[in-house]
From TrEMBL, chains A, B:
Keywords: Amino-acid biosynthesis, Cytoplasm, NADP, Oxidoreductase, Proline biosynthesis. This is Gamma-glutamyl phosphate reductase. One of its GO terms (molecular function) is glutamate-5-semialdehyde dehydrogenase activity. It catalyses: L-glutamate 5-semialdehyde + phosphate + NADP(+) = L-glutamyl 5-phosphate + NADPH + H(+). Its EC number is 1.2.1.41. It comes from Pseudomonas farris.
Length: 423, 423
């Protein structure tokens, strides 16, 4: 290609903006037809998908990609099944676009309400998992947005093969190809261009490691829906049912170590610490979880001495820091200070405690008597999620179809004029 | 002051963050008490307010401030009345904080819903109108946020005097002084610091001219709720009731020329242009509104030839551009291309036309048979507004108390665990 990366990205951006007008007013039936047809296309293209993925895997091995990353890159038959099921699930979700709420008459005689509409063009920047291509494209399409997808260069052949299936789906539904575009160049300047075209791109969703997200946030001239750390806490309060607390804390840590909703720090009220900690610690030790504790914790159970650094750390591993706190106030203070405002839970049977915890903990999900690992779009009933936002503005917590839309005001009158008596 | 501007702003930021935790959990009654007490303090301090404002006005005159800016700077007795009434109105508004919606049981047995909570710390950057100090502080306080206010240097004495009254109100209600802080230095580096402290400031609201807003948006490392142009259109469709259309278009342009909801371009369907334009033009001409038209317009009425530039221009003045369009499609295309996505209206008695216009015009307010000048927080029933957002993310259109809050998820269980059968 002889055109510059900037020209190329501008061309994609302009095409996406055009296409966003078409997909924004497409009917629910038409969008669902495209999703179902893309699912059929994926099912029919298993051999091509596997062959394309083999090329990426071979390239990855040649470049010395770590085994964990190769594992993420692999498009197994089960993962292809997962993409197909995912497309059909998104087709089955209710369409958020066009919903009107809260229409009411004002004293002037006009009616005012809000209508849910697509954001426009969404740029997705992600790393090696090729199935993100389907997740992101399907959610954006269903919510009436055009998408520009920039996957990792190590997955470029897989992403192209997946994109070809999406293209077949769009064509079958009579929708323009530019509704979903995959950036074809692996030049890193493409990312720089994508995040600095507010005239063509309305929002960027980076999905990947902290380095990617921080870089995108720092350099973007377009709003970013981002997900940083998940330093999640469970607080076992003075009024906890202790066997229940132990089950919750164990599930919160061990359901999966690598998810952002995994508990990283356990806070235990000093009034129950002696009774609670020994059996809790035994269970974690049996599972192979390393315990790091504050001084008061280490007076009760064996644990590595926790440092200030530990309270700030998202381990994503079988390691847990434990702190004994004076009471509810110190628990809330600890969470708001050291946490990442992601997901935090109190275990308590006392209404006053839980009421305060819910009101005062400043996190995207605040929980009562529930393990933090429940923080997930499917568990919350969103149907699917494009990520979990740790931002406060726009979308906070798991982001589903609604998070990919916004609301505009609609005002209906019959000739009412401002500054004059109602007609 | 011997500390650097950065140190000073960091100190304000840290104090605001601390105070935000207190105001965030303050009761509705306590917040209302502070607002009412501040209103009483303003009423009791009329002499001080006038004296402080006199100093600013004298300084402004000495510095050759334009008469229009001096007029905006003046704190007349009526404007002081307005601030007092404004505070009492905000006290009377419903408190958005803590509202819980959509709690529902999930198959796992957990209940999931959303709770409305304050954003945290809001930085307001504004130009010469000192009454913005009260508007901004009262809305932020009622919505449970701490505020850092950076007014124009030409209004510093007025702003300090107003802030002193707010401080009396906060003290009477037992709330910390740092809930509302006015930046005391007129050093411009203070703005640079305020918009780059994401650890202390959650959102910036710039209120002022385009230059200010563009500068803040460009340099901010904190989300910005911003208001750019208001290039608003009225489209007189083929199915318009023409006398009604004339009343609406006249009101949209002439209610006030200087507001962002004022109509700047009138689009007229070719099928009604000959019948509609002559009497419409006569009415505008009588009012002294300069008309600039496309060729087809100028074939019907006398008007200056409109240039491409005109369609892009927010006049905020008695000037109107007029274009004859082929029909609904071209009208929507014109609005989405040349408009500023602020407020646009169709005049039509036809349901299919209005349904398409509402769905396809990509503006923060889309109207039917209503003048665009109705775009306003009071008219929409928000009680008060901190501005009109032309952003798509978070808040779109007039921003009231709700726009200064966000929602977090709340999850309530009774020991349910993930990945296991419900207990």
């Amino acid at each position: 290609m002889t055109e510059s990366v900037l020209d190329y990205m501008t061309r994609l951006g302009r095409a996406a903006r055009e296409a966003s007008r078409v997909i924004g007013r497409a009917s629910t039936a038409q969008k669902n037809r495209a999703l179902q047809a893309a699912a059929n296309a994926l099912d029919a293209a298993r051999a091509e998908l596997t062959a394309a993925n083999e090329r990426d895997l071979a390239g990855g091995r040649a470049n010395g990609l770590e085994p964990a990353l190769l594992e993420r890159l692999a498009l197994t038959p089960e993962r292809i099944d997962g993409m197909i099921v995912g497309l059909r699930q998104v087709a089955a979700l209710p369409d958020p676009v066009g919903a009107i709420r809260d229409m009411s008459y004002r004293p002037s005689g006009i009616q005012v309400g809000k209508m849910r509409v697509p954001l426009g063009v969404i740029g997705i920047i992600y790393e090696s998992r090729p199935n993100v291509t389907i997740d992101a494209a399907s959610l954006c399409l269903k919510s009436g947005n055009a998408t520009i997808l920039r996957g990792g260069s190590e997955a470029i052949h897989s992403n192209r093969a997946i994109a070809a299936c999406i293209q077949r789906g769009l064509a079958e539904a009579g929708l323009p190809a530019a509704v979903v575009q995959v950036v074809e160049t692996t030049d890193r300047a493409a990312v720089g261009a994508l995040i600095t075209m507010p005239e063509y791109v309305d929002v960027i969703v980076p999905r990947g490691g902290r380095g990617l997200i921080e870089r995108v946030s720092r350099d973007a001239r377009v709003p970013v829906i981002k997900h940083l750390d998940g330093i999640c806490h469970v607080y076992v309060s003075a009024h906890a049912d202790l066997p229940k607390a132990q089950r919750i804390a164990f599930n919160a840590k061990t359901y999966r170590y690598g998810i952002c909703g995994a508990m990283e720090t356990l806070l235990v009220d000093q009034s129950v610490a002696k009774e609670f900690l020994p059996s809790m610690a035994a269970q974690f030790r049996e599972k192979g979880v390393e315990l790091r504790g504050c001084e008061r914790t280490r007076a009760i159970i064996e644990a590595v001495a926790a440092t200030e650094e530990d309270w700030h750390t998202e381990y994503l591993a079988p390691i847990l820091s434990i702190r004994v706190v004076d009471g509810l106030d110190q628990a809330i203070e600890h969470i708001n200070k050291y946490g990442s405002h992601h997901t935090d839970s109190i275990v308590s049977e006392n209404l006053a405690d839980t009421r305060r915890f819910v009101a005062e903990v400043d996190s995207s999900s605040v929980m009562i008597n529930t393990p933090t690992c429940f923080a997930d779009g499917f568990e919350y009933g969103l149907g699917a999620e494009i990520g979990i936002s740790t931002d406060k503005l726009h979308a906070r917590g798991p982001v589903g179809l609604e998070g990919l839309t916004c609301e505009k005001y609609i005002v209906v009158g019959d000739g009412q004029l401002r500054g004059q008596e109602s007609v």
